[in-house]
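Case 672 in the screening queue. Each case pairs one protein sequence with one candidate compound; here the compound is flavin-adenine dinucleotide. For every case the pipeline is the same: read the inputs, emit a complex structure as tokens, and attach any notable structural observations.

Predict complex for case 672.
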Amino acid sequence: MTTYPHLLAPLDLGFVTLRNRTVMGSMHTGLEESPAGLERLGAFYAARARGGAGLIVTGGVAPNTEGVIFPGAAKLTDPSEARTHRPITEAVHAAGGLICLQILHAGRYAAHPGAVAPSAIRAPISPVKPRALGEAEVERTIDEFARCASLAREAGYDGVEVMGSEGYLLNEFVAPRTNQRTDRFGGSLENRLRFPVEVVRRVRAALGREGILVFRLSMLDLVEDGSSWDEVVTLAQAVEAAGATIINTGIGWHEARIPTIATMVPRAAYTWVTRKLRGAVRVPLVTTNRINDPAVAEQVLARGDADLVSMARPFLADPDLVRKAAEGRAAEINTCIGCNQACLDAIFSGEVCSCLVNPRACHETELPLVPAAAALRIAVVGAGPAGLAYACTAAERGHRVTLFEASAEIGGQFNLARRIPGKEEFAETLRYFRTRLAQLGVEVRLGHRATADELAAARFDRVVVATGVVPRRPDIRGLDHPSVTGYADVIEGRRVAGPRVAVVGAGGIGFDVAELLTHAGDEPDPVGTFRAEWGIDEAYAARGGVGKAARRPSPRQVFLLQRKVAKVGAGLAKTTGWIRRTLLAERGVTMLSGVTYEAIDDAGLHVRVGGEARTIPVDTVVICAGQEPRRELADVLAARGVPVTLVGGADVAAELDARRAIDQGTRAALAV
Ligand code: FAD
Ligand code: NAP
Ligand code: SF4
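Case 672 output:
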């Protein structure tokens, strides 16, 4: 008897059977734009098909030039383009999987001057004012969706997903927020739904009876003047009647100011939306957002929230997620921690998508995992993310690895990160590494600070130094005052004296410390608390499901300071920085930039801001002023002529994050 009876149950669609209830959701990877990229995508998707994904949906591909998301982005408009997709469909089918092409028309989110929309209204997150489509152009666009679907079949896809959510073109026609037309595609509900429904009808005709047609329907826009709940239901029924095989859930427009997939969103926080639609249509429903664990997916299906579960980023983190669950090996799953750092943030910076916890994602052909030509004895010093990645990868290739860790547990700074409210998922990475180390037979010596003497005496073939970082001690008068403390002490729970705290340094760790200090405490119902805090209205009293946010007050008064004159938090990540800035601002955190630190004494922290002297009367000063590499061991070994490989913070501490640490550790171990 499996632990996941609902998740692993096949689903008969009448003309084809999905082998289980998992959908690998659509993600743009940055490889869609060239034939060479599509070859690499073949390897990427095939690995997920072998790993058990029930149905794979590709990244979005535009049905015409106006609809591309940026100039030169993927489109499918003629047979020669269709042929370039063959490596994907053939690889997936050879691996026993099914794959649909997502047709995405970016509408007013297109980042190019040719952007079009139902009405000429600029999106708040876009610099481009779109042109309103004429009525004949709307008709032409519908035909182009159908042509794209035919070409997808020619390319060997098992069907398509029509992207009708997230604030893209189809969604823009539905919502009064973006549709102010007065022709037969605007005004009444029937008119606003005409475009998406007609797209589905003609796409169905183009696919024939036996093509899978998934419609991604925005069930919760999370913007003002989005759809009402009745409109969501009416659209669902209309696309079902027009020929959809499956309805997938879309949550939140890109311009919504409510988090939908970041790590601080509780697991399965949005499946209630899909459940609300159940019973209104007969086609299977897919639910989504922050489902990263087969046990959670099983629970969601078992309680009847949906028929299928979509996971996108979790398949970047671990291609074998489903197979491991089915084989009773869930502890071996490399879990997506929802950080967005190597996937969405990378895409926004124009890089190829990957994964912080799995740097081989989308780099399968470039970073093959092959057995080592000769097994070496390797010492890895430091069990932070860099050392763990190195040790596991090297052992997987057949090397004999001994891992030294000075503290009593593996993890390095991840043991601090996982204690920050909203970053609890980081503990999953440590569970994964713990399981892998044991399985791979790595000799782990915890509570053992490795010395140069013992490493030299043991005559390892290689010594890898992953000793991480030490916090920087800034040059401020009074740094030894009893009110001053380091971030590790605060995060590990040593008491913070008094209700007024200054945080020196507003980088990633300064923000995390401020989050911890202003957090009102955990609640028994995290999903309910999340909804209340962000004003997500389950009752759907207003269009878009947006209600009034009820923030919980901070238990402390916090000042977050930096020397740079830029806006505090300007350097935080694109997709999550705004959430962190919003939360702290609404909890009343005072953010000061352009600060010069003068002294710390009984009166508090003395600073100059814009040249003006000021005393911030605080009880505690927490230092979060960056870090320096921890190099003593490497220096002594080098002086003795023992060659060392440096990875992670021990190598370069500036702008170090776990993405670089794990990537560097993995690549170094693949090269040895
Ligand atoms: P470390 O994690 O510092 O590990 C080094 C290890 O070496 C330690 O365990 C140490 O005990 C051990 N060691 C040192 N000397 C010896 C010795 N002689 N013998 C044996 N063992 C030794 N990064 C992100 O990408 N995203 C985030 O959201 C994020 N959040 C963070 C939040 C907080 C609060 C903190 C503190 C960090 C966060 N980071 C985040 C940063 C991330 O944790 C680090 O970049 C990463 O841990 C660096 O990995 P590392 O292996 O180089 O070093
Ligand atoms: P950081 O991001 O480099 O920030 C260091 C902060 O200290 C900056 O605000 C800097 O700003 C200040 N500072 C530097 N030198 C100083 C000095 N001599 N005196 C006073 N202030 C000084 O480093 P971090 O916050 O320690 O984080 C370490 C790494 O972990 C980062 O690279 C980050 O990527 C990663 N991390 C990521 C996340 C995440 O959510 N993605 C979270 C936590 C950590 P000024 O110079 O302007 O004062
Ligand atoms: Fe998940 Fe982070 Fe990997 Fe993206 S980078 S897939 S969010 S773990």
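Case 672 observations:
- The chain has a mean pLDDT of 97.
- Residues 135-154 form the longest helix (20 residues).
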